[in-house]
Design goal:
It is a single chain. By secondary structure, the protein is an alpha+beta fold. The chain has a single domain, classed as Nuclear Transport Factor 2, Chain: A (Roll), CATH 3.10.450.50. 25% of the residues lie in helices and 47% in strands. It has 3 helices and 6 strands. A 6-stranded mixed β-sheet has the order 2-1-6-5-4-3.
């Protein structure tokens, strides 16, 4: 793996770690200034620009008692010195404040750009859901939603 491939993977992993820690600001920082984050049906979210992305992720996380994302394979294709495309398999589950539950699997399709300082930022993240169910999760939430700095 090249160092750029590892840096792209790190950007992706930091996004999902920030979601799990409920840190919407950190999620938004990983996007370029005009970045786009969207989720395909059945959820249908689309936010453009860091401020809108932070607000959108804050709203999504705020609607949950807990939400956990686990990523599977991350495949990175370097398109040029400054551009990359990636695919990330994702499983997530959570419980909403209203008591509803959610399980989803799917794939994130990403376009990233290497910044002048060498960091990689998302230009566009799109999650396409391949499976979704909303049957109640039987377990007990041991640690209700809160931003974790651990």
């Amino acid at each position: 793996m090249t160092s750029d491939t590892l840096l792209v993977r790190e950007t992706i992993e930091r996004f999902h770690d920030a979601v799990n820690r409920r840190d919407a600001a950190r999620c938004a920082e990983l996007f370029g200034a005009q970045g786009v984050w969207e989720v395909a049906p059945p959820f249908e979210h689309r936010f453009e620009g860091r401020a809108a992305i932070e607000k959108g992720i804050t709203g999504t996380l705020g609607a949950t008692v807990f939400l956990v994302q686990s990523t599977g394979p991350i495949v990175v294709d370097l398109v040029s010195e400054k551009r990359a495309k990636a695919r990330t398999s994702l499983q997530e589950f959570g419980r909403f404040v209203d008591g509803a539950s959610m399980r989803a699997t799917g794939t994130y399709y990403d376009e990233l750009e290497r910044q002048d300082d060498g960091t990689w930022r998302f230009l566009h993240r799109r999650f396409e859901v391949s499976y979704h169910e909303d049957s109640p999760l039987p377990g007990v939430v041991l640690h209700p939603a809160e931003r974790s700095s651990r």
